[in-house]
Amino acid sequence: MLSRPTKEQLLAIATSYGLQCDAADLAFFLAEIDKVMASYDVLDQLEEPGLPVRYARANVYRPAAGENPYNAWYQKCSIKGARSGRLAGKLIAVKDNVCVAGVPMMNGSALLEGYIPDFDATIIARILEAGGEIVGKAVCEHLCFSAGSHSADTGPVHNPHNFDYSAGGSSSGSAVLVAAGDCDMAIGCDQGGSIRVPSSWCGVYGLKPTYGLVPYTGIFSLDLTLDHAGPLASSVSDVALLLEVIAGEDGLDPRQKDVKVEAYSAALAGEIKGLRLGLVEEGFAWPGLSEPEVDELVRKAAFQFQELGAELTSLSLPLHRLGPAILCPLYFEGSLATVMQGKGMGTNWKGFYGTSLLKAFAHGLASRIDALSDMAKMHLLLGHYMQKQYHGYYYARAQNLVRVLNKAYEDALQQVDILLMPTVPIKATRLPGQDASREERMSGVGKLTVNTCPFNATGHPAMTLPCGIIQGLPIGMMLVGRRWQDSTVLRCARAFEQLRGSS
């Protein structure tokens, strides 16, 4: 039987809300609460429905440094799916905020260390049914709160193009493992750029699909209005193939509504002659942020689309510069509600709740909250302050303004078919040294997502593709399309990939 609140506990709760309760009030409510909690007792006697787990889990282990040169693996394993299918022969790594039954999950944080999921996320089940082999969990940043690659409690993830440089985040390990050739494809998740930033800095292809196209069921959430899961790979064809397998409604994710799935692989064969691409001027030359050589390289790469018969124009989108500010309350107040208070799931939505994950994270918060990273603590402290002082006003205001931001992009996408800009306005940065100050470890991380984050709120598909190298470090170009037209983005990326391959 569940424990009932004591008089002292009830009084403390009442006081925290400014509610006046005398001894008679407390006695009355304690008696009434006892009656209601009988229903809670019943829940412990019922078997809750889970998600099916198929296919044997084998060779699960944490690799030693010699087998993990970039510190990008959290766990290795071998989960072989169906004997045939679209992913037969493909090796797939999975970001470590995605639940894979029988494989330890840490989500980059010591608060979850030791947790082993008892269910597979929907996308894992789909990969295995399609014949793919899950070969391990890729390190991600601490609770996915950073766009750098130095916040995971397992240590920094190194860029395979230069060991001393950041790989980007938060899907840091996923991008590195693809770039290093340790897997054919990887799953990443993206709330502000977490697929696209590391893909850009590691020189691989990464797609944040249309919001809701890929089910988020069984994945640790940051804010239900920003969550996206998607594919990373070393070729556009593999991105399209993995998307084909994981896309579509599962009936368990409230983010999904009227999902429109396309034949992504078949769409790659089409030409892009006549396709209209718009260079978003506000995506370039960010004051105090952009590096001119990155802007120049992306512009030069963009003009290559004209060789393929595409039309390239320049357009102004002033609201793009305000996107990061509009999204700020969603990150801080949204993550407070979903992560800190909702234990990675939140409430008030219908679908599958991973109760074992919820319990594990709740225990970690209760017993080891000081182990939160500085960025996570910032989200907790600022999010709580804003909620306490302003009662969700700015979160609500931001969500309303997202509609204005969305209309600006929609209007632009009536003039052109694809929006184009640098994925990240700067080259990969050096990893902070062991003696770096807290301020140095936090500084600059926010500017990495200025171009990527607005599309998490509006839900447009956005893909980064490698477009050149500066000082040995890859640079990414981002293509953004209309919602549910991920195939157009992929077709455009494929045409560029083929052109570059032949040049």
Automatic annotation (TrEMBL):
The keyword Hydrolase applies. It is an enzyme of class 3 (hydrolase). Residues 81-490 form the Amidase domain. Keywords: Hydrolase. Its EC number is 3.5.1.4. Pfam families: Amidase. InterPro entries: Amidase, Amidase_CS, Amidase_dom, AS_sf. This is Amidase.
